[in-house]
C-alpha cells in the first residue's frame, strides 16, 4: 500500500478498539476459507465490533482529507453512498478522461460523509426463495366494490393500489442485475476492478471477493435521470447506469494508472459484451429463422446504437488533444511570467499583451474541455444504459428459446444444431462481429 494511503488511514488504525484488535488476532488462527467467510460477512453486514467506537471517543472522521487529495489529482467526488451513516462507496469523476468510477470503502474504516455532496442510502438486501417464488405475481390495481353503500356512491367502485407493487419491482430488478453480474464475474475475476449496476431503487455490485452484494437504494432526488434533448423535445429514458469500482486500498496503489486502466477496461468489456451478443444473436437467429424481420430489426437497432462507440472514441480523442493543447499553453504562460526583460517598460507592455492573450487561450481551451466532457458523459450514459438493457434482452431471449427446444424434444421434435447455421444468414451480423 502506498505511503499516502498509510498516512491517510493511520488515524483509523490507532483509534480501533481493543475488542476489534483482539477479534482480528483470533481470526489469524482460522484456515483460509474460514477467514474469507468472516471477511466477506464483515464487509456485507458492517460488523458492529469494527464500526462501534469506544464510549470515550468523541472524534468523527470525515472524507474531507480524501476529497482534497482527489482534487490534487484532478479527480472530483460527485456522489456518496452510505450504509448506517458511514460511507460504503463514493463516485468520482476523472477529469483527464471524463470517466466516472466508484471507490469502495471497507467497513472497518468509519468514514463519515460530507453533507455538501449528494448522498444516497444503501440498505443491504438478500434474495430469499420466497422472492423468486413470488416474483411473477400480477401487479394490477385491486378493484373492489362496496356492496353495502346505498347512495349515489354505489355507481363508483372503490379501488386500492397494490402495496406490494414497488417491492415486487425492486425484487425483479435485483434478480435481473444479480443474474447479469453473475455472468460478468468471470470478466473481473483477475482484476482489482469490479463492476456495479444501479438504478433509482437498487444497487448491485461485484465485491472484492468476486461475489455479489445487492442493496435497496434510498434517494432524496432521482440518481439516474433521463436525458432530455431540448432542441428536439425528446426524452431518452435512462433505465440504469453501470460503473467500474475499486476498493480504497487498491485505489491509492493504482491512482496514477487509473485513467488508462479505466479506458482499457471499458474497451475490453465492450469487446466481451459484443462477442457474447454476437453468439447470442446468432443462436437467436437460428431459433427464430421464421422471424427474419424481427431479427433484422434487432441487428439494425444494435448497429445504430453501436455508432455511439465511434462518437465516444472521437470525443475521447478530442479530449486528449485538448489536454495536450492545455499543457502547451500552460508552459507558454509560465515562460512569459518568468521572463526577465532588459527594457522594463517595454517588457511590461509586450509581456502584458502576451500574458493576456495566453490566459485567454487557456480559458478557451478549458471551456472546450468542459463541453467535450459534458457531451462525452451524455453519450456514455445513453450507450451504457442501452448496452446493459440489450445484454439483458438478447441473452434472456436466447436462454428462453433453449427451454422451448427442451419442450419440443419431449415430443420427438429436435431443432437444428446451432453449429449448422446457414452461412448466408451470418452475413446479417458481420457488423456486430467487427
Key words describing this protein structure:
2 domains, alpha+beta, 434 residues, two-stranded antiparallel sheet
Give a nutshell description of this structure.
The protein has 434 residues and is an alpha+beta fold. It is 54% helix and 15% strand.
Can you walk me through this structure?
- The chain is an alpha+beta fold and 434 residues long.
- The chain has 2 domains: 3-123 and 192-256, no CATH class; 272-433.
- The protein has 13 helices and 12 strands.
- The protein has helices at 3-15, 18-27, 32-45, 48-51, 64-72, 129-133, 165-188, 248-253, 258-287, 292-338, 344-409, 423-426, 430-433; strands at 75-83, 86-94, 99-104, 119-124, 142-144, 158-160, 194-198, 202-206, 212-218, 227-229, 234-236, 241-247.
- The protein has an 8-stranded mixed barrel, surrounded by 4 helices.
- Strand 8 and strand 9 (212-218) form a beta hairpin.
- Helix 10 packs antiparallel against helix 11.
- 20% of the residues are buried.
- Residues 1-40, 44-60 and 136-150 have low confidence and may be disordered.
Amino acid at each position: 500500500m502506498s505511503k499516502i494511503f498509510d498516512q491517510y488511514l493511520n488515524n483509523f488504525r490507532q483509534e480501533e478498539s481493543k475488542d476489534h484488535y483482539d477479534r482480528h488476532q483470533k481470526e489469524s488462527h482460522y484456515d483460509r476459507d474460514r477467514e474469507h467467510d468472516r471477511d466477506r460477512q464483515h464487509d456485507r453486514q458492517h460488523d458492529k465490533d469494527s464500526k462501534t467506537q469506544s464510549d470515550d471517543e468523541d472524534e468523527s472522521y470525515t472524507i474531507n482529507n480524501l476529497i482534497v487529495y482527489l482534487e490534487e489529482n484532478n479527480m472530483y467526488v460527485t456522489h456518496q453512498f452510505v450504509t448506517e451513516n458511514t460511507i460504503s462507496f463514493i463516485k468520482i469523476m476523472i477529469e483527464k478522461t471524463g470517466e466516472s468510477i466508484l471507490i469502495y470503502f471497507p467497513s472497518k474504516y468509519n468514514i463519515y460523509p460530507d453533507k455538501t455532496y449528494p448522498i444516497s442510502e444503501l440498505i443491504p438486501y438478500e434474495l430469499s426463495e420466497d422472492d423468486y417464488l413470488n416474483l411473477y405475481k400480477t401487479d394490477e390495481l385491486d378493484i373492489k366494490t362496496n356492496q353495502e353503500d346505498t347512495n349515489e356512491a354505489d355507481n363508483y367502485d372503490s379501488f386500492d393500489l397494490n402495496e406490494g407493487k414497488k417491492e415486487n419491482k425492486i425484487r425483479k430488478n435485483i434478480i435481473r442485475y444479480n443474474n447479469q453480474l453473475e455472468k460478468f464475474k468471470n470478466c473481473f475475476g483477475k482484476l482489482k476492478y469490479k463492476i456495479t449496476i444501479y438504478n433509482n431503487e437498487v444497487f448491485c455490485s461485484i465485491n472484492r471477493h468476486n461475489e455479489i452484494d445487492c442493496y435497496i437504494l434510498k434517494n432524496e432526488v432521482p440518481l439516474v435521470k433521463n436525458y432530455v434533448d431540448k432542441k428536439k423535445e425528446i426524452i431518452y429514458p435512462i433505465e440504469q447506469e453501470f460503473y467500474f469500482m475499486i476498493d480504497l486500498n487498491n485505489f491509492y496503489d493504482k491512482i496514477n494508472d487509473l485513467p488508462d486502466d479505466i479506458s482499457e477496461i471499458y474497451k475490453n468489456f465492450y469487446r466481451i459484451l459484443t462477442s457474447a451478443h454476437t453468439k447470442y444473436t446468432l443462436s437467436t437467429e437460428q431459433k427464430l429463422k421464421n422471424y427474419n424481420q424481427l431479427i433484422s430489426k434487432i441487428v439494425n437497432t444494435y448497429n445504430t446504437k453501436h455508432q455511439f462507440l465511434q462518437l465516444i472514441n472521437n470525443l475521447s480523442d478530442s479530449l486528449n488533444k485538448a489536454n495536450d493543447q492545455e499543457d502547451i499553453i500552460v508552459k507558454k504562460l509560465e515562460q512569459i511570467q518568468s521572463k526577465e526583460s532588459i527594457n522594463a517598460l517595454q517588457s511590461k507592455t509586450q509581456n502584458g499583451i502576451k500574458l493576456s492573450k495566453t490566459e485567454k487561450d487557456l480559458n478557451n481551451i478549458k471551456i472546450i474541455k468542459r463541453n467535450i466532457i459534458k457531451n462525452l458523459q451524455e453519450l456514455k450514459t445513453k450507450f451504457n444504459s442501452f448496452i446493459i438493457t440489450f445484454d439483458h434482452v438478447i441473452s434472456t431471449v436466447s436462454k428462453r428459446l433453449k427451454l422451448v427446444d427442451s419442450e419440443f424434444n419431449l415430443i420427438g421434435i429436435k431443432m437444428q444444431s446451432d453449429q449448422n447455421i446457414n452461412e448466408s444468414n451470418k452475413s446479417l451480423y458481420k457488423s456486430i462481429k467487427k
